[in-house]
């Protein structure tokens, strides 16, 4: 394992209007599962070889959140989502890259540009590879969702020692009736229970950001306190 470089950058906040955000990055070659676990426990997220977390001065709105899998019970509405997708084929495997992945990724982001005003840029083979395939090492996986032979959803995750870390999910908007976003998270919980993992690390919860506030619906959950360094213990309440 080798930390290639560390740096911080400031830009417009991705989650709250009229704010700036400062993010700390670590770029790590051949990251071990133990190091990935330590970083995720301390509020980092992973895209490719890049690990990052917000370090904004005077703002603590981005709270790392994790679902307590051991004590999670599927509600009636959750069971309906799972039942509605009973004919969907689900495959767990190492991350891959195909033209089908790229087409679906672009279709999803064009849809989100119209629905939520996301800034759209056509993805490239290199961008997708560096974001979702490279750096997976022996802990990164994808969960593929198929309607017969048609790829309709891709969920990128890390399976760590004590839990599953959510990275990114995208889907075919033509299948919105299947609630694929909810299904993907419920499927993570199902996988975690089968593997006897205790947590789903869901990234950041921001109360006033609709794209992230939904995470508090999945109870029970814990949030990370402050921003511990790697040589400090993490505290979740």
What is the helix tally? 6
Summing up helix and strand content along with how strands pair, one would put the structural category as alpha+beta
User: In the CATH hierarchy, what is the superfamily of the domain at 68-199?
Assistant: Gcn5-related N-acetyltransferase (GNAT)
Looking at the structure, the CATH topology of the domain at 68-199 is Aminopeptidase
Give Rg in angstroms: 17 Å
The coarse overall form would be globular
Write the CATH architecture name of the domain at 68-199.
3-Layer(aba) Sandwich
User: What is the percent of helical residues?
Assistant: 25-40%
What is the residue-mean pLDDT, rounded to a whole number? 95
The rounded distance between the terminal residues' Cα atoms is 31 Å
Order of helices and strands: EEHEEEHEHHEEEHEHE
What is the C-level CATH assignment of the domain at 68-199? Alpha Beta
Biggest beta-sheet profile = 7 strands, mixed
How much of the sequence lies in strands comes to: 25-35%
């Amino acid at each position: 394992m080798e930390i290639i470089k560390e740096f911080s950058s400031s830009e417009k906040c991705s989650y709250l209007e009229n704010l700036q955000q400062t993010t700390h990055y670590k770029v790590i070659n051949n990251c071990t599962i133990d190091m990935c676990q330590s970083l995720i426990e301390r509020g980092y997220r992973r895209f490719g070889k890049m690990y990052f977390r917000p370090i904004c001065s005077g703002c603590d709105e981005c709270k790392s959140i994790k679902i307590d899998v051991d004590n999670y019970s599927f509600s009636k509405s959750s069971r309906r989502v799972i039942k509605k997708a009973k004919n969907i084929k689900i495959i767990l495997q190492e991350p891959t890259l195909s033209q089908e992945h790229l087409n679906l990724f672009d279709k999803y982001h064009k849809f989100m540009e119209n629905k939520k005003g996301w800034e759209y840029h056509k993805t490239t083979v290199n961008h997708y590879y560096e974001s979702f395939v490279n750096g997976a090492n022996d802990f990164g996986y994808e969960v593929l969702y198929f309607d017969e032979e048609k790829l309709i959803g891709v969920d990128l995750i890390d399976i760590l020692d004590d839990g599953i870390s959510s990275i990114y999910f995208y889907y075919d908007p033509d299948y919105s009736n299947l609630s694929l976003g909810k299904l993907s998270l419920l499927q993570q919980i199902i996988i975690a229970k089968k593997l006897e993992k205790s947590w789903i690390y869901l990234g950041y919860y921001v109360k006033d950001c609709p794209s992230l506030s939904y995470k508090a619906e999945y109870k029970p959950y814990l949030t990370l306190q402050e921003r511990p360094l790697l040589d400090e213990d993490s505290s979740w309440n």
